[in-house]
């Protein structure tokens, strides 16, 4: 499952604004992702986040494996036009 698209960036990966910061031995993600189809079925997702704001937009991005049961993470399934999830 992929946490790529964002409300203000769509699928433009260079426009990612989800931030990540170090907190001791852990990383803290802060941002929103949309259109993560099947997220409510997944145990983990790959999340693209900005780790360096001082470089060109296409640089400074890092992938994180995110446990979908992590505290603070909320997943809302999207209802399809046929009523399914």
Mean pLDDT: 88
- Cα Rg: 14 Å
Classify the beta-strand content into a percent band. 25-35%
Percentage of residues in helical conformation: under 10%
Strand/helix succession = EEEEE
Please state the structural category. Answer: mainly beta
Count of DSSP helices? 0
Poorly predicted regions are none
Strand order of the largest sheet: 1-4-5
| Annotation, overall tally of beta strands | 5
What sort of overall outline do the alpha carbons produce when their principal axes are compared?
Answer: globular
Quaternary class: single chain
Described by strand count, sense and barrel closure, the largest sheet is: 3 strands, mixed
Distance between the termini: 15 Å
Structure notes:
The chain is globular. Helices cover 0% and strands 31% of the residues. The protein has strands at residues 2-3, 19-23, 26-30, 44-50, 61-67. The protein has a 3-stranded mixed beta sheet, with no helix packed on it. It is an all-beta fold and 85 residues long.
Sum up the structure in keywords:
three-stranded mixed sheet, about 0% helix, single chain, about 80 residues, mainly beta
In short:
The chain is mostly beta strands.
Question: What secondary-structure arrangement, pairings included, does this model have?
Answer:
Elements: E1 2-3, E2 19-23, E3 26-30, E4 44-50, E5 61-67
Parallel strand pairs: 1-4
Antiparallel strand pairs: 2-3, 4-5
């Amino acid at each position: 499952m992929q946490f790529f698209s964002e409300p203000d960036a769509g699928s433009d990966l260079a426009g990612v604004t989800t931030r990540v910061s170090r907190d001791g031995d852990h990383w803290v993600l802060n941002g929103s992702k949309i259109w993560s189809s099947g997220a409510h079925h997944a145990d983990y997702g790959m999340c693209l986040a900005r780790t360096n704001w001082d470089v060109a937009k296409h640089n400074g991005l890092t992938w994180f494996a995110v446990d979908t049961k992590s505290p603070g993470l909320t997943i809302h399934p999207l209802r399809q036009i046929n009523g399914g999830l």
